[in-house]
Amino acid sequence: IMKSMREEKTRRNEGRSALISIPTKLTFVLLLLLLPYHSSFAPPSSLKPLRHAPISIITTSVLSVATKPTATIEEGDIRIGRTRKRERTAKLVRLPKKAIDIYTEYARRLWKETDPKQRRRIAKDKATAAIRRVEHAVGEEYVEFSEEAEEAREKLLHACQDMLLAIGKSEDRQQQQKQHNLQTTTTTATTNIESHDQSNQIADANENKMVAHIPEEPLMNEKQTEQKKKKKNRRSILFGAVMGAIVACWVFSGNWIFTGLFTSMTTLGQLEYYRMVMNTGVYPARRISVIGACSMFLSALFAPNLHQICLPMFGLWAMIWFLTMRRRVASIPEIATTFTGMFYLGYVPSFWVRIRVIGANSELTKLAPIVGPILKQLGRKAESLPSFIPQAIHLPITTGSIFIFWTWLCLAFSDVAAYFVGRSFGKTKLGKIAPAAEATSPNKSLEGLLGGMVVSAGIGILGAWVQNWPHYIATGAIHGALLALLGLIGDLTASMLKRDAGLKDFGDLIPEHGGIMDRVDSFVWTAPYSWLVCAYIIPALKQMARAKVAIPI
Length: 553
Description:
- It is a single chain.
- By secondary structure, the chain is mainly α.
- Helices cover about 75% and strands about 0% of the residues.
- α1 packs antiparallel against α3 (about 55-65), α9 (about 255-280) packs antiparallel against α12 and α10 (about 285-300) packs parallel to α12.
């Protein structure tokens, strides 16, 4: 705001100087025209050439002198435009660094919220709540005990009070230690703060002056709230379109980039999941699960034959850790949540990487004549890049990548269609056919599910036609409908986990959209099915179609 105010002030000053200078220069030129003809005026030597000059030359000089400030203003506007353009370019250049900073900050925060200190705090709160419940239940005045039980009750009440007192003293010591550390840091920083006090007071005074001129916002009425909701919906639609374009570029970015970004997202999803689990008082093997999930993605790319062995091997490692590194016997929820994290967020979605590497020498699709020249141009530009980059760019298109693109398109549009159809026509809740589904997500309706399946089937038919599938109408429609159904199962699975943990979202990475798991929940259970279709079912159907053509019946 201050920068724009300064630019506006500079522009006004330049315009004012131009308006003031034009009459002054016109007066000076008129004196040059009139004074040489006065008998008592003896012009200096520097003005003698103008005495006998033609009127046209003088007029031209007048116009050039008079219009010079306007040109200066235009040049200033051009300079401001160039500055703004450079600022926009600098922002675009800084976008990758900003994205990396956001990712690292969010991952660091998730890791900190799932470390052993957080576990100890949650366990202490849980123990304190349990002791208070026991104290309240045993100390109830209407509960009658025998004489022996009365003595035991008194001892138990004293023990509960001693435990609460001990926990309170430990918390007080920790609080005192924190305050001591804070005081030491504040005393060392006092000198720096005092040196900046005067500048901060001046800045606060200027800010108060600016705020004093800002009128108070009135309370929003119903129309304003509706407009705010519409703006929010537009932002969501725009965000979805931008994310769709980014995901499309990601799908066709090459095997290495695709797997690397998928592994990074899996790390965040795992940490979101384990933070949710730890808030319920369950403490799984977090590090082993995260490493195991990442190894499943890497093995799916570099060693597909070893992909199936990753889950049992890391499960064995987790059990060894539970038996050797824990001071007490691990509980069933701790073991179950550890295996669930590796399976649900590691092994199952890693099949997308296995799909991505299928068909390095991909078959031509219906869009090959349109996309072919663009890919050739990109390949020529990629030859000038470093040696490690062309490997990810020269062959970005595989049979698996095209299959992933159309499959994810079906899932995205089925989700959108289910939302709008369910909101407009949804009357039959899913509880009519699945009571647990309604309890998990009460807003889901049968009409929304059918609308999502129809739209997904239509996009599946288009994708099957582009990919030259045999009997593309039937295969595309069945594939699209099954994707919508499996996507709903993934959505309900994530909602079931969140409802049991008492959470609305897994995280807060994406404003108004939640965390990573909130965005990719419908893509989890569709991965194994999609791999089965792309690796076995479609090739078998194509082989049968070629056999029928070769041997006519």
